[in-house]
Give the backbone structure.
Amino acid sequence: MLTKIQRFIALLLSVFCFLALPAMADERGTAKEALAMVQKTIVAMKKNGIEATIAEINKRDGQYKDRDLYVVVYSIEGKNLAHINPRMVGKDMIELKDGDGKYFIKERVEMAKTKGSGWQDYKFVNPESKQIEPKSMYIEKYENVIVACGIYK
């Protein structure tokens, strides 16, 4: 049996967890915010040029990153041009598979070529949690590049 102090502590912990839920939800980016980051990036590309914008993204100074949201850019052939992980930049990613074996970059390239924009579901490592998580990526083709930003579910 629990003592009065133990019940009181359990009650306090329950209240704390309940109150923390909205704050924890705010730690993750939303679909609306991801779409806005892609559009912001394309506006910058139109104003400053594609190469200059890619250079800014690769500085990783925060302008193109917000919590678990970050912008990535691929060539229309699937080469990574900008990413939060510098080891990915400059690599041909077309054969990359997610945890389920899905060729998600191939799918992304095909979507960009045929539809121009849209949402794509796959699994990827969340840079905040360091875990593989389900992710939805909004992609939009601009000239010869694919600009994308995704949300972890």
